[in-house]
Structure formats: structure tokens, C-alpha cells
Amino acid sequence: QQQVKQSPQSLIVQKGGISIINCAYENTAFDYFPWYQQFPGKGPALLIAIRPDVSEKKEGRFTISFNKSAKQFSLHIMDSQPGDSATYFCAASMSGAGSYQLTFGKGTKLSVIP
Amino acid sequence: DVKVTQSSRYLVKRTGEKVFLECVQDMDHENMFWYRQDPGLGLRLIYFSYDVKMKEKGDIPEGYSVSREKKERFSLILESASTNQTSMYLCASSSSGTSSGYTFGSGTRLTVV
């Protein structure tokens, strides 16, 4: 079954700390792993994405770590700021057969406190 | 700036009404999707479309239908609104060219009373 399991459901981090959100998947055919950030009252927006040919991708304070053998990937937010407080969704999809449907995790609500 | 536009931010409808939620994208994307978002349940796929006049059921299609008469527009229809359809509804679109993720609209908060 195509599932993506995300943890934790909620996370509280001190300003300046590291926020870590984890996801695990089952379908080895997945080949695209994006993270979305959603602020209250807004739709999710693409934050960063990775493909399985690399083990890590960094964009500013945001890093995806990818472990293909463990079928896990995680989002690290360095030097977390109150403005990072949002809900984060991991997702996965596979190419081919005209299908690029994303399978989403259930989301993590991150609160960064001053 | 490319975007997905949902026609209403907030809607209040009565039980039994027929409700139309409209979504328009300006990116010439082939794929369009409707999700509902509820606390603790994440994003649940209602319907999606890979082409004009084409539709496929997602995980929770019961009580909903869709229409895609033009490439840029994807409508979600609640045939007879019920209180358990009170939710945030999100439209998204994506390109079939490569796995490039979705672009989401800002959502419609629907309350059925």
C-alpha cells in the first residue's frame, strides 16, 4: 500500500534550535520526495524536494536527509525561527504511467517559541 | 506569478444545498486535484483529473463530484451538502512532464450548517 508515515504530529522547538521531522515510506518505486510548508489560512507551498540519487539536499536553513535503504527521509530546520512556525507535510510520488500523484504524510505542526 | 486560484475563501451553506467550489490555474498544468484538510487527518484526496473531461476518484469521493470542461478549470461539487463536509478544501495542480510537485490554492473554508 502506498503510505507515507510522518512523525511527530507536533513539535515545539526553542528559537535557534534544530527542528527535525521524519517520514518513512513503503513503496520503493517512489522517486520524488517533496516537503510542503503551510501557514494558517494558506495552502501548502513547496519548500524543498529531493530525488533518491542524492542523500542530502540543502537550501538555506532547510535540509532534507534521505536514506534509501531504510526508506526514510527527514527535514532538518537549522536555527529555527518563530517565522518557521507552520504545518509541514512530507510527500512522495513515482514517475511513469502518466501518474505524478503525491502521497502525503499527515503533517507536523511546528511551533518555534522565542 | 503563477498560481492556483480558488474562487471563495469562506463559504457558509445550508444542509442539503448543492455547493460548487471553483478552481482555476494559469500554468497550463495537465493535472488537477481536490483535497480536503481536517485536523489530525492531513490531506485527503477527493478527486483528480489528468485531462479535460477526465476524472478519477481519490480516497474519499463519496458525496462529491467534479467537472473539468476546460484545462484550466476544475470544479468540485457537493451534491447535497452535509455537516460532515464542513472542512478546508484545497485545489492543486501539477505538470505531467516531470515529478515537480503540486501548486496549491489558498483553500476554501466551507461551513455547512
Overall description:
The complex is a heterodimer of chains A (114) and B (113). Chain A has strands spanning 4-7, 10-14, 19-25, 33-38, 45-50, 56-59, 62-67, 72-77, 86-92, 103-104, 108-113. Chain A is mainly β and 114 residues long. In chain A, strands 2, 4, 5, 9, 10 and 11 form a 6-stranded mixed sheet that branches. Chain A is globular and about 45 Å long. Chain B is mostly beta strands. Chain B has no helices and 11 strands. At the A-B interface, strand 5 of A face strand 5, strand 9 and strand 10 of B.
Calculate Rg of chain A over CA atoms.
Answer: 14 Å
**Any idea what the radius of gyration of chain B is?**
13 Å
Q: What distance separates the N and C termini of chain B?
A: 36 Å
- Overall outline of chain A: globular
pLDDT averaged residue by residue of chain A: 92
Q: Identify the most extensive interface between protein chains.
A: A-B, 27 and 25 residues
Low-confidence stretches of chain A: none
Main structural class of chain B = mainly beta
Q: Using DSSP, what is the number of strands of chain A?
A: 11
Question: Helicity of chain B, in percent?
Answer: under 10%
